[in-house]
Amino acid sequence: MRFATRAIHAGQDPDPTTGATIIPISQSSTFTQAAPGVHKGFEYSRSGNPTRAALETALASLEGVGHGLAFASGLAAENAVFSLLATGDHVIAAEDLYGGTVRLLETTVRTRGVDVTYVDGTDPEAFEAAVTPRTRLVWVETPSNPLLHLTDIAAVAEIAHASGAALAVDNTFATPYLQQPVALGADIVVHSTTKYIGGHSDAVGGAVLTDDDELFDRLRFYQNAAGGIPGPFDSWLILRGLKTLAVRMREHEKNARVLAAHLSAAEGVDMVHFPGLPSHPQARLASRQMSGPGGMVSLRLAGGKPAARRFLLALRVFSLAESLGGVESLACYPSEMTHAWLPEDERERRGIGGGLVRLSVGIEDVEDLIADVDRALAAARAG
Ligand code: P1T
C-alpha cells in the first residue's frame, strides 16, 4: 500500500470485538488475565495499550520500518535514544537543533559522563573529523530547527557506521511524507508527534522508529522501565491527526513555497531560510533526499530585534506561539522562545540572532497569510 493509504489503515483494522471502524480509546490502565500470564497481548498500559499500539504500528509503517515506540513527548522519545549511551561514550550532534534537545544533551546526557561534540550539520567532513573511538551515536535534525539546515543522511550514515556508531535522525520537520531517513541509511528516527504528525496542536507526543531488532529491544525495555508513555487519549488524537498527514503536508508546502518566494523579494528581509528556494545553499540535497521542502520558513529581518518585535506584534493570522506543524500558522521568536535556554553568545555563534523569526506556515488561504506578513513587515519597517 502507498503512503496516504497506510496513514489511514496501517495498524487500524476494524476492532475485532465490536467492529468499530475507528481504533477505540482503550482508556484502561490494566487488562484482566484468564490465568497468570494468560492474556490477549496487553497486561498493563505502561507496557502496552491497544490505542498506543495502533499508533506505534502506523508510525512504523509510514517510516518504512518494523518497529515503533510512542512516548509522552518528543523529548521523552529523544531521552529514550540517549538512554542507549553509557558513561565514557561520545555523541556527535549537528549544531542547529531544537533548543530543548541541546538542553537535554547538556543537562542530563553530558552530566552522566557522556561527551558531546557539536559540528556543522551541513558538512559531512565535520562529522568525520569529530569521530573518536568512543563515538556511539550521531544525532541530526534535517531540516533543522530553526535554520532549516540539511544534513546529507546517506553520507553521514556511512561515516557513523564506519566507526560503529548509530545515526539518529529527528525527522519532525520533514515528516515521513517527505523524507524517510532509514531508507537513506539512518538507524533510528525520532519525532515530536506534537507537530505535523498530530497536526492540530492539541496533543504532545513523541516517537522512536527503527528497523534494528536489537536497538528496538533496548528501546522497548527503556520505554517500559522508565515509563514516559502517552496516554490512550493523546495516542488517539495523534493517530487521528496522522490520517491526514499526506494531504496536510501538500497544503503546508504549497503555502510555504508561495510565502518563502514572497518574503525573499520583500523589503526589510535580509535572508529567507527555506529548502525549496533555489537560493538555499543545499537546494540540490533537498531535492535528492526529500520529496518536498516542507512547511517551515525562517527569515532574518534587517532591523534586528526591534524590527522582529514589531513584526511579531503586528501579525493577526499567525499566532505568536511555540510549536509548529499544526494546521494554523504560527510565528516563533527563537532567541526568546524555543532557543532561550542557550546563552546569547552561543545563540549568535549558531546564527540565531535577534532578527530571526521562524514561521510554521499553516494551511489557511495563502492570500491571507501574505496579507498578514505584508502588514507585519510594514510595521517592522515603520520603526
Ligand atoms: O515538544 P516535544 O514534543 O517534547 O518535542 C521536542 C522537539 C523535538 N524535535 C524537534 C525538531 C522539535 O522542534 C521539538 C519541539 N519543538 C518546539 C516546541 C518548537 O517550537 O520548536
Task: Describe the protein's topology.
Blueprint: H1 3-9, H2 50-63, E1 67-71, H3 74-82, E2 90-94, H4 99-109, E3 115-119, H5 124-130, E4 135-141, H6 153-162, E5 166-170, H7 175-178, E6 188-192, E7 206-210, H8 213-226, H9 232-242, H10 245-264, E8 269-273, H11 283-289, E9 296-301, H12 304-314, E10 319-320, E11 330-332, H13 344-349, E12 356-360, H14 366-382
Parallel strand pairs: 2-3, 2-4, 4-5, 5-6, 10-11
Antiparallel strand pairs: 1-7, 6-7, 8-9, 9-12, 11-12
This protein binds ligand P1T.
Ligand P1T binds at residues 73-75, 98, 100-101, 141, 145, 170, 172, 192, 194, 204, 206, 322-324, 332, 338.
Describe it.
The strands form two sheets. A seven-stranded mixed beta sheet has the order 1-7-6-5-4-2-3, sandwiched between helices. The protein has a five-stranded mixed beta sheet with strand order 8-9-12-11-10. The chain has two domains: 3-242, 3-Layer(aba) Sandwich (Aspartate Aminotransferase, domain 2); 245-382, Aspartate Aminotransferase, domain 1, CATH 3.90.1150. Helices cover 39% and strands 15% of the residues. The termini are far apart. It contains 14 helices and twelve strands. It is an alpha/beta fold and 383 residues long. The chain has helices spanning 3-9, 50-63, 74-82, 99-109, 124-130, 153-162, 175-178, 213-226, 232-242, 245-264, 283-289, 304-314, 344-349, 366-382; strands at 67-71, 90-94, 115-119, 135-141, 166-170, 188-192, 206-210, 269-273, 296-301, 319-320, 330-332, 356-360. The structure holds ligand P1T.
